[in-house]
Specification:
There is one protein chain. The chain is mainly beta and 179 residues long. The chain contains two helices and 15 strands. The protein has helices spanning 17-22, 60-65; strands at residues 6-8, 13-14, 28-30, 49-51, 56-57, 73-75, 81-85, 88-92, 97-102, 109-116, 120-128, 133-141, 144-151, 158-166, 169-178. The strands form five sheets. Strands 12-11-14-15 form a four-stranded antiparallel sheet, with no helix packed on it.
Length: 179
């Protein structure tokens, strides 16, 4: 896992040649890019953490890379958090569902990982960048980690937006690339 970055004609930067090949790229060249320490955060490690300002991150590594200190990060247990702000007590229920899409870029199959603190009936929709829905699937999400495998071979190459909703409430949106 030597750090020897390569860049593709499409503008992607990979840790080294092996990572680029594994993602299906064959047209790339060495490039001079400083390593991003956040690149070492595992994206398949789904243990949500919350911050005092109400944000939720997939895991502690990502929150730390975003500049939060360990003192500002705590476990998302679904319980309401009470914070003091401007001498007023503000009760805030933190969002405790985390969605991850992999691999990204996608060839024909994509995994949608949903880790949630509560059971809910949801809907996964994929829309193109014009806003047209091109894929919809309902799913029953149980407390804990849920994984859906979606067959996207009928989608054209491009950038898409995947959304997970509960009733009419957006849980999370993630952009991904279909190759």
């Amino acid at each position: 896992e030597e750090y020897a970055p390569v860049c593709t004609a499409e503008g992607y930067v990979f840790h080294n040649e092996c990572f680029a090949l594994c993602e299906g790229f064959t047209n790339f060249a060495p490039c001079d890019v400083e390593p991003n320490p956040c690149d070492n955060c595992p994206t398949d490690w789904i243990e949500p953490v919350c911050t005092a300002d109400g944000l939720t991150f997939t895991n502690e590594c990502i929150a730390l890379c975003e500049g939060y200190t360990p003192e500002e990060i705590f476990s998302c247990d679904g319980a309401p958090q009470t914070q003091q702000a401007d001498n007023n007590t503000v009760e805030k229920v933190l969002h405790t569902t985390v969605v991850n899409v992999y691999p990204n870029p996608v060839n024909n199959q994509v995994q949608v990982a949903v880790k949630t603190a509560t059971n809910f009936n949801g809907k996964v929709t994929i829309s193109n960048m014009v806003g047209q829905n091109v894929y919809t699937q309902t799913a029953e999400f149980k407390t804990g980690k849920n994984t859906l495998q979606l067959n996207l071979e009928d989608l054209s190459t491009g950038v898409y937006l995947l959304q997970v909703n509960e009733a009419n409430k957006l849980i999370q949106s993630i952009k991904f690339i279909k190759q």
